[in-house]
Amino acid sequence: MREFFAAVLVFLVSDLLFGYSNFVSLDEVTNGQRGYGLTVWSGNQLKRFDFEVVGVLKSNPKSGVIIAKSDDEELKRVGVVAGMSGSPVYIGNKLLGALAFTWTYLKEPMFGITPISDMLDLEKYQRRYVSLPRDLRYVVPLLVSGVSREVRPILNSCFSNYNVELIDSFSYFKVLSDGSRRSKKDEVVFKPGDAIGINLVTGDMELTAIGTVTHVEGNKVFALGHPAFLAGNVEIPVSTVDVFDVVPRQSLSFKLGVPRELVGTMKFDGSSGVYAEVGIIPEMIGVSVNVDNEYLYRYNIAKVKDLLPQLIEAVFTESVVRSKGIFGEGNVWITTTVGFSVSSGFLKNNFLLTFNDILPVYNLQFGYYYALSDVISLLSFLNYNPSFKVDINKVHIDVSTKELDAGFVVFVVPSKSQVNRGEEVSVKVGIKKFRGDIETKEFTFRVPTWVQSGTKINLGATSKLSRTLQLLSTYSEYLALDTYDKLYNFISESLRVDKLVVYMEVASPNVASGGNVFSLLPLYLMPTLLGEMKSKNLLPYIMEEEETESYPFVGFATSQILVK
């Protein structure tokens, strides 16, 4: 038995030593050491380049950045290239780390190396932040395809904090309509030195960040040696990439390539690199934009909450500018349908939510901007709502332009200025049509029998959206979105601009609590109840009539009647 345990111990120790013997630790690095690196170059050819260690910039007692220089003739000509990040570098056939940083306007190739020990910690989902000299930098090349001139400023703004540089490229991808999951487990997809793509958008627009694979263990892939977007725990598709050529520039040269095929998932994006697994391709958000019922565009967007609003802005704007002009006047109609799931324990419930809006504008460019704001606000509201965690999987946007039209609410006139309890009151509402005459709509209300003499009753008319906002701003207990039904009614019905709401509002001792309105309470209970609800407004007794039109209602009007 003793011999058995001794044999097991020897096996474990030898396995441990063998695993770490393939790597060079930071403590073993000295000035003047020579080694070589590997990276895919023009025509997908694997290029070897030599280097010499200059020194180590310590950022903390356990980590740092290794500085090296190279006398490689091609690197002397083009410099360190954007897209080389992650290129494995070796000393004596042992992996030292990943080429990750450089300087601009160098007279000879120099670069910073992230130690492999820092990158392997990514598998444990740990962050290590490395202090860098101010002018030492990294660049994430973002291959873009299907992007017009008008959309580039949106993308520049989206990635302004991520050291991303946009590079025009080509496309091999076909449109993926459903964010499907496919298995690549049995294929050897990546080798150290290969190019790897991080796919944010596929379909009629493609956005793919590229870098280089540093280390592969089975289906586990470590790359870049610096962040892509510092997104932490994520599920973003990764792809193989074909490198066509290296484009030399005075500031920073770059690899020109195209994403080839989705093959796996980036699981973590940290300060010392990215970690991916080959095999399962993660679900993406399927986004479709239908413009004027004539042009349909399809995209798939990676599920990155912090980038989703800007990426939606990019694909929406691209769809519109490809299809039509953005000048002139009109009503911009937009309908946004969002498919999402909500998990509760082991159960996963799927829901659909639709939001409609009509935006009358003299300049269609502003109309599309406001329409886009609607979409982004809805998605942000779902992603960051306090009641339940939402997983968005589909977004469909219908956008069209019609003739400019609107109804301006100009007056509310009751048939009587003084009324009795229980009496019916006729209310006329004046609607001034855009470039047209005033139309009158008539509604009838009955005064409650319990109203006390001398009570002033408020009458008003406005759009459903304005009425909802008015109630929310005054009565915080009016809304509680703690169930899907309440959320659906709020988004789909309570925010309509094409619905006219005419209301009678009676001050009463009704009390709102938890989103419910209690019936009339005896007056002797009110002082006690009010003492317990000092921070809450009392919701009045409200009667409403609604009418829907094919145009938006703008403005509001009010009036009062007195109970005799």
Short descriptors:
564 residues, alpha+beta, Thrombin, subunit H, six-stranded antiparallel β-barrel, six-stranded antiparallel beta barrel, 9 helices, disordered N terminus
Structural account:
The chain has 564 residues and is an alpha+beta fold. The chain has four domains: 23-124, Thrombin, subunit H; 140-278, Thrombin, subunit H (Beta Barrel), CATH 2.40.10; 285-402; 407-563, no CATH class. The chain is 18% helix and 44% strand. The chain has helices spanning 2-21, 73-78, 116-120, 152-158, 308-323, 364-383, 464-474, 484-492, 526-532, and strands spanning 34-40, 46-60, 63-69, 87-91, 94-102, 110-115, 140-145, 164-168, 195-203, 206-217, 220-223, 232-247, 254-270, 273-278, 285-291, 295-301, 330-344, 347-361, 390-402, 407-414, 418-419, 424-433, 438-446, 456-463, 499-506, 512-513, 516-517, 541-548, 553-554, 557-563. The strands form five sheets. The chain has a six-stranded antiparallel beta barrel. A six-stranded antiparallel β-barrel has the order 9-10-11-14-13-12. Strand 12 (232-247) and strand 13 form a beta hairpin. Helix 4 packs antiparallel against helix 5 (308-323) and helix 5 (308-323) packs antiparallel against helix 6. It is elongated.
